[in-house]
Structures are given as C-alpha cells and as structure tokens.
Amino acid sequence: MTKSINESYGKFATTSRLISCLIIENLATAYYYSCPSSEQQQLIGLCLVLRTGRDSRDHNNNSNKEQDAMKNLHDLLAIVPLRGIPELDTTATPLALKQGTIQCPKIELLDPWDMLAPHIYGPSTANNIPSSENSVYNQVKRTLDTMGLLEQGQSIVDNYDAVQLWNQFASDSGVSETEDSKQIAAEVGNSIIHQTYTYDHPKPLPTLESPPYQWEQLIFEGHPYHPMHKLRISVPPLPSIEPGQVNWDTPQLRLLAIPRRSIKVRGDFEQRATPLIDAMLKPTATDGNVQEMRKKYTDYVFIPVHEVQVPNIEAKFKDVIIFPKENNVTAHCLTSIRTVAIPDILKDLTVKLCIGIKVTSAMRIISVYSTYFGPGFSTNVVPRLTYDRSILSVERDLASAIYDHENPDIAKHCSCMLREAVEYPSNPDDHNKDAFVVTGALVEKIQKPDTDDTLVTHVWKLDTEEKKAAFLDRYIELALKAFIPPCRENGLAFEAHGQNTVARFDQKTGELKGFVIRDFGGISIHRDTLKKSCGVDVDVLPNSSIIAESMDLVYNRLYHSLFHTHLQRLIRVLGMHHNARGWEMVRHHFNKLVPKDDPMYAYFMEQKKVSGKCLISMKLDGLYRDDIFRPFPNVILTQKRI
User: What does 112-135 look like in DSSP terms, one character per residue?
Assistant: First the structure.
C-alpha cells in the first residue's frame, strides 16, 4: 500500500477507537441512521456523533434536547459510515429529523470493527472539500442531504482524525485547557504516528512452528478499544522516541550492580538470575572468569535493565553501577514490550523490566505493589486456587528486585521481575510440541490494514463458517473452563485479555489444548472468598488496587478482560457477532459451568447492563491504578439481528 493510504488507515485505527470510547462511556451521544437496502451494499448506515454543550440545546425547554441540538451538519462531531449495525438503546427517545419522518435510534455501543475503514468524516466548509472524492464519500454526502442535514455551503471532509475530533470535543465540553485533555490530544496524535509506521513496516507472517516471541511481536494494531493503542511517549530524562528509532523487538539488556543496602529482593532472585547475569558479565571478564568478577561485587546485587531505561537510572540512582555497553545480551520482546525472553540463556523464565515510556494507559515501570505482591501470591496462593491444571497454566512471578527508595514513584524506575515461562522450557518434548500464541495476535490483521483476514483465519485456514464455528466453540469452552472456576470458587479474576493470555495449541494439528495466564498487576481478589476457599490470606501493601471490596468488582474485572475485550474481538473477527452464534456458544458453555442460583450467573446472564471500564474517563481524571466503571451493554446477551 502507498504511504498516504497507510496514513489514512493509521488515522482511522486511532480515531475509530476514540469514537467507540466516547459513545460507550456516555461522553458523547450518537445516533444510527439505517441506509436503504437499495443503496451501496457496503454501507449499511451512518453513526451520527453529536457535539456536546451546544447553545441550541436550551432554546426550547419543552423539546427533546438532543433533537433540538441536531439542526445541521455543524452540530455533529463526526459522521461514521458503518458496515455493521451497532448496539442500540431501544428505550431511549430516537432522534427525529425532517419533521419526524426520519427516526434515528440512540447508539449504546459501537465497535471499531463495524466502522467502514478508513472513512471518518467531519463537517467542513465548501472550500475545504477534498479534491479526491470516492464512492463512500459521495454516498455519505447524499445520505446527509436526504436527512436534511446539509445546508448551503456545508460539506464533509474525509480523514477526520482523533486529534481534530478530541480538540473539538474538549472545546465543547469546556476541558480543552486542562492538562489531562491536552495530554489526551498529544497521545492520540502519537498513536496515529506509530500506527502508521507499523503499517509501513509489515512483518513476515507466522506459522504454528514459529517461536512464541515471533507471535508476540506481530501486534499490528494492539488493544481493540483503547485510543492510545500504539502510544509510545517517553518521559524525561529519556529522549523522545520517534517511530523506528528503537529496536523494540530485539532490545539490548544492560547490566546494573546495586548496593545490597539499597535494594529489596523477594524470592530467590539472585539464584534464578544467575545464567543471565553470568552471560552479561562474561564479555569483560578476564579469560571469561565470571566468578572473579562476581567477587569484586559481593556487596552488590546484579539486575538487568532495558537499554532505553539507562538515562533514568543515571539520573535517579547515584549509587547504582551501570556496566559498559559490552556487558549486554540481546533479548526478544513480548507483547508488552517491557517483558522479554532470552530463551538461549534463561530457560523457563521471562524477565519483566522497567521502561520510562507511556504505552496505552501508563508508564511501563514495575511498581512497589507488583514487586511485593507477585512472588508472595505465586508461592502462597496460586497452588491453592481452584482451576483445571490440564487446561490452564498460571505463570508465577517467582522473584523480584526493586530499589529501596522512600519515594515509590522513583523506586519503580529501577525494578525487575522474574516470571515463570512454560513457553521456553529447559527440557522441551520434541515429540509432543506445543505452539504458544499470545491471544492478542490471533485477532490481528495479516500485516496489512485493508483486510478482514486475521492471523487466526490465515494460519488455521478457517475458510468456511463451519470451520470458524468449530474453532470458536472449542476456544470459548476451554477459556470459560480456565477462568470461571477461580473467579467463582476463589473470588479471583485474572486479567485475561489478549496481552496476558497465551493459547496453547498442538503444533501438528492446530487444536487448542489450553491457556497460559500471566501478569498479576491487574487481577482482582475478594479477600473473604479467597480466605474461605483457599485457607490463606493475600499479602498486599496498603491501598493495593488488587483488593476488591465486593464480588461484583471481581466480576467487573473478568467481564472487561475476558468477555468484553478478549472473546468479543475473536467473535467479531470470525463473523459470529451479528448472527449471535458466538454469544450463543458463550451462554451454552457458561450455563454448563455456573448454576442459575449462583450470584455469578445473575451478574453475567441476567443483567442487560454490566459495569465496564471507562478508558477515556480514566485518562481525563488522570487515573491508572484506580478504575472508573459505568454501565455497558452486556454483549454476552447479544441476540441475532433480524
């Protein structure tokens, strides 16, 4: 594809996610107009996103404010062509146009997959009409005219992007001068730039024989709903990071030596890290004698650091020794970027590191909460949890190290975690090999933006509806068997989204065998339920975000990560959402696991609305560890569209 087309798709990827969040978080109001079936088949309707805070809303206190606000094109924040019908609020008063002859129902949830890429339009003056019009542009313009929304001198402009949209929304909402709002504008702009770069630099497609880290590095668009899905913003003293400037796939790990008096260690960190540290010491050891070098630093603890993070170490930790560049090893990054594998050196483990850059929600460091909680939870709680070990493997945080600083916001810049990794075994079974695929990669496109073909349909050759249905049914069955029992029995919800969950397939047949779950930073635990079921308490620092005050909050976590983010994306890319076939599978397998008199059943299967995580609202309030939830349509209850 040409660079300009990739840029259009790059804008669309971020802008579509922003619009989706504004609608579902109830920050912006949107309505659906269904195009007549005789019109262009590809375009089935329009999403009309209204501007907020318009003076015309209050002109007539007796009229419907939303209707009163909708007078012409310039009362719209965006116009989005659709290829799929969104989730509609049948209880809300529809938007009436042309003296009530046109009724547009309110949209509750609009998924980016249902938007007609790469077209998002904004209002424009006649002299700002793009020179190159296309069939979608012309169709949308004619539809707006039919709706009575085009007045003399008004038109629409294509390639309306997230920065323009956010700035207009922020101005209308009266938040344009806040630092959080300005940050959002900068971050969606950065996401567009990095998304476009990814489109410009496609990677070779994988096979079932590909190493796990190759799958991890095929994240083409990232989080299916987060508008900062490709964000890469550094924070001083790190220099700015431009696309292509850092080799994220195979970074260099540098070596640090920290005085023992200045570091907190949990678990047998030094013993487990020995192969890695020896490999890093060897390049400058006399005659390769690593033990002689170790004797010089008996009062120090060695830890690895990501090469990008070195300026932060230099600026913040004056008693830390930074070894020369020669003392390095090359690692393979995983989906999160900050977690790496070095399978030739470090078996059965991966290494989670700090990087002082913002990716999606926040800076990618390791907090004092995580370094303290992970090893203790892994040792004392994980072995007691209720789950099928033949289906689910829980990768434990085995050991951690963090600089002992009175300010936790500084300490978190110099920390490290050693995590169990079943994907990189020390004794692999050559006769019964498994393929480990991070589940977020399954739903990624095949390294080009203008396609609906994803890695799951390509690699597993799912070229018929029945093949897709068979794959999906087994996937849903095993996913629910993996993650429902610890939630229902132990009051623990793993954060089972596409980045934390790895699927385990038979390498020869491609049949799904089970899942691997990792990263405990986002789990949710109801303490009393855990104590009663496992006979053990959870050891956390005060004010830990992991502790849930009620089981409903635990259900929130599972719903958002497993159902809303993980399964919904797979169901949609396999074409099983609008016909509800995928959700029928979910309900079927859920019913087999959870009795109807169980509180969990009532939460997931009887509520039309469930509490969903509000990504933009959290950004507006400057939150990361603390979540904001509001009622979202319960996609589990999705029914077939007529």
Answer: GGGB-TT--BEEEEGGG--SS--H
Q: Residue 363's pLDDT is what?
A: 87
Per the listing, tokens 């009724």 go with 103
Question: How many other CB atoms are found less than 10 A from the CB of residue 205?
Answer: 13
Give me 292's structure tokens. Answer: 């002689």
Write down the pLDDT at residue 56. Answer: 37
Tokens 């007609």, residue located: 116
- Domain assignment present for residue 201? The answer is no
Q: What is the pLDDT of residue 531?
A: 98
Q: Are residues 188 and 244 in the same domain?
A: no
Cα separation, 519 vs 214, whole angstroms? 19
Residue 276 lies in a domain: yes
**Residue type, position 159, single letter:** N
Q: Provide the edge-to-edge strand list for the sheet that holds 392-394.
A: 392-394, 512-517, 501-506, 434-438
First to last CA, the chain: 37
Mean pLDDT for 327-338 is 97
Average pLDDT, rounded, for the chain:
92
Domain with residue 547: its CATH number is: 1.10.510.40
Distance CA 97, CA 103 (A): 7
89 three-class SS? strand
Name the least confident of 128-132, 490-494, 509-513. Answer: 128-132
Do residues 406 and 444 share a domain?
A: no
Structure tokens belonging to residue 457: 């349909």
In a domain, 17, yes or no: yes
**pLDDT digit string, tens, across residues 120-142:** 999 986 555 554 568 899 999 99
258 in the same domain as 234? yes
Instruction: Provide the pLDDT for residue 626.
Output: 65
Residues 22 and 152 in one domain: yes
SS3 230: coil
What is the structure's pLDDT at 72?
A: 78
What is the per-residue pLDDT for 132? 55
Alpha-carbon torsion angle 247, 250, 252, 253, nearest 10: 130
- Phi then psi for 345, rounded to 5 degrees? -115, -45
**Which residues fall within 8 angstroms of residue 318, CB to CB, at 6 or more apart?**
none
**Is the separation of the CB atoms in 560 and 613 below 8 Å?**
yes
Q: How distant, in Å, are the alpha carbons of 63, 548, 612 from that of 109?
A: 25, 27, 11
Torsion sign over Cα 5, 8, 14, 18: negative
Number of domains in the chain: 3
Q: pLDDT tens across 595-627, in order?
A: 999 999 999 999 999 998 898 998 887 655 567
Q: Tell me: do 134 and 266 sit in the same domain.
A: no
Residue 132 lies in a domain: yes
Which domain range does residue 60 map to? 3-195
Instruction: With 0.85 as the threshold, say if the pTM is over it.
Output: yes
Distance CA 113, CA 580 (A): 15
Residue ranges with strand state E in 201-320: 233-234, 252-259, 263-266, 300-306
Residue 60: CB atoms within 10 A of its CB come to 11
Q: Give the closest residue to 45 by CA, choosing from 87, 8, 86.
A: 86
Name, in order, each residue with C-beta under 8 angstroms of 159's C-beta and a sequence gap of 6 or more. 8, 11, 118, 120, 130
Q: What is the pLDDT of residue 499?
A: 97
- For residue range 216-242, what is the model confidence (pLDDT) as tens digits? 999 999 999 999 999 999 999 999 999
**Chain segment 11-26, per-residue pLDDT in tens:** 999 999 999 999 999 9
